[in-house]
């Protein structure tokens, strides 16, 4: 799993990778709680978490691997 601070609700070249964490398994519809100790710049407006970013796990729905939350 990778966690980014981003200006937009997507990962682009200006997004900043703030955490990488191995996930041994995650059931369909499962949840994962993580902690990130990093401070976003004033330009970053979102935190974006992506599981299976390399597409290593075959899934019936590849579109549900990203979660975006606006930073306060």
Task: Tell me the number of strands.
Answer: 4
The number of domains is: 1
| Biggest sheet statistics | 4 strands, antiparallel
Distance between the termini: 22 Å
Please give the radius of gyration in angstroms.
12 Å
What structural category do the secondary elements indicate? mainly beta
Strand content: 25-35%
Give average pLDDT, whole number.
Answer: 89
Helix percentage range: under 10%
Order of helices and strands: EEEE
Number of helices: 0
**Main sheet: strand order:** 2-1-3-4
User: What is the general shape?
Assistant: globular
Low-confidence sequence ranges: none
Provide a quick synopsis of the model.
It is built from no helices and 4 strands.
